Amino acid sequence: MTERERGGAGHPRRRGQGELEGQVLAVLRPAPGPVNAGWVQERLGGGLAYTTVITILTRLLAKGAVSRERAGRSFLWTATADEAGLAALRMRRVLDGEADRKAVLASFVTALPPGDERLLRELLAQAGDEAED
Question: How confident is the model over 93-104, as pLDDT tens digits?
């Protein structure tokens, strides 16, 4: 492991916000069906504590990105969103927390690079066409 990966001074590199959530979803998406937290922990590797995996799964549940079903004294988990879906959930949560949605959306759109703005317009047009069908 390089000094950069360790985060310097021998400390593990600190993960970015949502990075673990994305990793958990990446493990859950191809799962053969609902799986327990131990299964997720095993496939994540990296020595994550079981309690950390449970915490991440619980956060994803609150965001609607996973579902769970009772299996004895524990739960089985299933991904209901991919990483793009998780990012969209985060964006909606931020938007829902603001009083002036129009101002937030206007600020967001005007800050987009031209290619992203064009893509957003195309996606909105597609969504409008699908709504009419």
Answer: 888 999 999 999
CA 75 to mean position of chain CA atoms: 20
- The residues facing 74 across adjacent strands are 71
pLDDT digits over 90-132, tens only? 888 888 999 999 999 999 999 999 999 999 989 999 988 887 8
Long-range contacts of 96-105 (CB under 8 A, 24+ apart): none
Q: Which residues contact 80 (CB under 8 A, 6 or more apart)?
A: 64, 65, 66, 67
81 Cβ contact partners less than 8 Å away, ≥ 6 residues apart: 25, 64, 65, 66, 88, 89
pTM equals 0.66
SS3 56: helix
Do 1 and 12 contact (CB within 8 A), yes or no? no
